UniProtKB/TrEMBL annotation:
GO terms for cellular component: membrane. It is a multi-pass membrane protein. This is Major facilitator superfamily (MFS) profile domain-containing protein. SUPFAM superfamilies: MFS general substrate transporter. PANTHER family: MAJOR FACILITATOR SUPERFAMILY (MFS) PROFILE DOMAIN-CONTAINING PROTEIN (PTHR43791:SF3), PERMEASE-RELATED (PTHR43791). InterPro entries: MFS (IPR011701), MFS_dom (IPR020846), MFS_trans_sf (IPR036259). It is found in: Membrane. Its main location: membrane. The lineage of its organism: Eukaryota, Fungi, Dikarya, Basidiomycota, Agaricomycotina. It comes from Hypsizygus marmoreus (White beech mushroom).
Length: 480
């Protein structure tokens, strides 16, 4: 495999080539290396994943707590049921969210991971807090635009940074762990938000407004504390020793040859954006996030439409997210174990389809509720799976920055789609939204079949040496 010509890369390669030779001389040497690897990667896991997962959980809560605020009084006070106001307020968030993701990722190294992520968290926390004081739905929509702008650079930066730390066939478990934190927090956030709404009347503030005020204050506090602990890219980190840093970089270099960042040029940016695979990955991610957003925004409203009270709807909204967390981790573990992505993405898409059919077309409230379990687990599981599928099949830091931003920006399109097809006029069954979401799952399976077939053929040609090296790396093969 061709290694980077960077002096640091050369030093890493030389150092670990010599250590590899010494390690193979004795079983003790091999055991020492395995122990060192386990200790180092456990340290990376504990430093990166819980904190970043919690911060993303706050982002997810802050963007989806509209549903709870709506049924606890905001609908009445701001007259959101009039026309398409609620759909507009929900959808406008995604416009800046889509626009600003790519520029943010491209300049992430120059901005500094710690400074940029801290700014994003504190800024959207301030906006979230301000939403508790809006007097009308127009200002609420404006705050949602600002919320989308400040959250835009956050998630793609997290995924970009995390994928630079791990080898290809261990990354989905890490993305899943990181995402599960947000899933569980998001699942119980409706109950927490309801408890906050019981403060209604205190200081003359409505219950729904307390949701935004307190959750915004919590986000700001977490953002300030996180500044002291957020890590940078592997080659710029400060929490590992020099030996541990060199070891992490060597593992990535051996796996895919892009441990050292390459320089972004206009020509590279154009090449990355013209790669059809990036657009297909993006469309797949849009299809996966659409049902996830629909459930996040509408689960309490859907449960209310099934006949349950406000309190029961909020309590019943949590179990589907707990089930989803277990399902996500299982599929991530099995996908990394067998080093295969496409089959398990397809299985989870089918689970989503079954769940949507139950929720949309069953006459039994409990069958519809079980459908929420399945559709939530399937769609939520596809999100880290597609992110892993994407990161496994690209090389170089610049392409990783571009593809991650592009893929995640398409989740914004999925969010707009979800908030516009699940219309107030279709309450309580939301059948047009169900039909549209089912169509997206079928489309995602078709795209998955296309990429899998292409990757399999390219791998066959690479093994037979009848095609150029993939990504310029002679030992690199696509992950199916």
């Amino acid at each position: 495999m061709a290694h980077s010509s960077s002096p640091l890369a050369s030093e890493i390669a030389i150092k670990h080539t010599s250590s590899d030779h010494s390690d193979v001389e004795t079983s003790d040497g091999r055991k020492d290396r395995v122990a060192f690897e386990r200790k180092t990667m456990r340290r990376v896991d504990l430093w990166l994943l819980p904190l970043l997962g919690m911060l993303y959980a706050l982002a997810l809560i802050d963007r989806t707590n509209l549903g709870v605020a709506r049924i606890t009084g905001m609908d009445r006070d701001l007259k959101l049921s009039k026309g398409a106001r609620y759909s507009i307020v929900s959808a406008v968030y995604f416009v800046p969210y889509i626009i600003f993701q790519l520029p943010s990722n491209l300049f992430l190294r120059h901005l500094g991971v710690r400074n940029w992520l801290t700014f994003c968290v504190v800024a959207w926390g301030v906006v979230q807090l301000a939403m508790g004081f809006v007097p009308n739905w127009g200002l609420l929509a404006f705050c949602r635009v600002l919320l989308g702008a400040f959250e835009a650079g956050f998630f793609p930066a997290l995924v970009f940074v995390i994928t630079t730390w791990y080898t290809r066939h261990e990354v989905q478990k890490r993305l899943a762990c990181f995402y599960i934190v947000s899933i569980l927090a998001g699942g119980f956030s409706a109950i927490f938000a309801y408890l906050l709404s019981l403060l209604g009347g205190k200081l003359g503030i409505a219950g729904w407004a307390w949701i935004f005020i307190i959750e915004g204050a919590i986000t700001i506090a977490f953002g300030v504390v996180a500044w002291f602990f957020i890590s940078d890219f592997p080659d710029k980190n400060t929490f590992l020793s020099p030996e541990e840093t060199a070891f992490v970089l060597e593992r990535v270099e051996h796996d895919r040859g892009d441990s050292i960042p390459d320089e972004l040029t206009k020509q590279k940016l154009i090449e990355h954006l013209l790669d059809w695979k990036v657009w297909v990955f993006s469309l797949m991610y849009m299809c996966a996030t659409m049902p996830a957003y629909a459930i996040g925004f509408f689960i309490t409203i859907i449960l209310r439409g099934m006949g349950w009270s406000v309190t029961d709807s909020l309590l019943l909204s949590a179990p589907p997210f707990v089930f989803a967390a277990v399902s996500i981790m299982f599929f991530a573990w099995i996908s990394d174990k067998y080093r295969h992505r496409a089959l398990f993405i397809a299985i989870q898409a089918i689970i989503t389809i079954i769940g949507l059919i139950l929720t949309g077309f069953s006459s039994s409230p409990w069958a519809r509720y079980i459908g929420l379990f399945l559709s939530n687990a399937g769609s939520a599981g596809c999100i880290p799976a597609i992110l892993a599928y994407t990161s496994n099949n690209i090389t170089s830091h610049t392409k990783r920055a571009v593809s991650t931003a592009m893929v995640i920006s398409f989740s914004g399109i999925g969010g707009i789609f979800a908030t516009t097809v699940f219309r107030q006029a279709d309450f309580p069954n939301y059948l047009p939204g169900i039909y549209a979401t089912l169509a997206c799952q079928v489309f995602m399976i078709i795209l998955l079949a296309i990429t899998t077939t292409y990757f399999w053929r390219q791998n066959q040609r690479t093994r037979a040496m009848t095609a150029p090296a993939i990504g310029g790396q002679s030992a690199f093969l696509y992950t199916l």
